[in-house]
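quick one, 194 residues, struct below
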Amino acid sequence: MSLFAIAAPVLGMALGGVQAAPAPSPLFGAFKAACYDTREFAGVAPAAKAAGWTEVPEAQADRRIATIVAKGRDAMKAEEPGASVTGQVFRKRIDGRDVWLVTSRVQSTEGWWANGCRAYDLDMPAAPPRQTLDGWVGKPPTTAAASGNATKRLWEPWKPGVTLEITYVPRDNPLGATYGIQGLVLVAKAIGGF
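---
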């Protein structure tokens, strides 16, 4: 047994109790391949396609995804009427379910911008254990919150200039009815131009 094999678990505990873990499902790898460099928005769609995501017109997306996208776009246009709002929708079949990747870029007339890359598994039956999520990210979250049985974990930063958010909303949680979101949502976002 090597010294590293002995020291790695001890070092992991000393650095916040997080030990490296594999992705909780293939969705995590497909999300990271597409969204890890969200700050460089021009590269997100090509990275998504290289990771096996298929671009689909918004009108052909699951109605729940189309509703989420429309609500987000309408809210941004109401908040920043002159801003340019662009993005794409992708689909991939993972674990026997259709999962969705939605990209977005807001460019304000004042010069600031915001990029987003979100993966949705709206039918995921249960949240991955928090230890598994923390292990996949490689560190504990900077913020963790719950609303009933819904959970949200936030890493600022995930990588320099990019924030990661992992949210799970069960079907029976009121947030799902209020916001139209249920299941697992992975979000990478970056802002700049200030």
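The beta strands are 54-56, 84-94, 97-107, 113-121, 143-147, 150-159, 162-169, 183-192.
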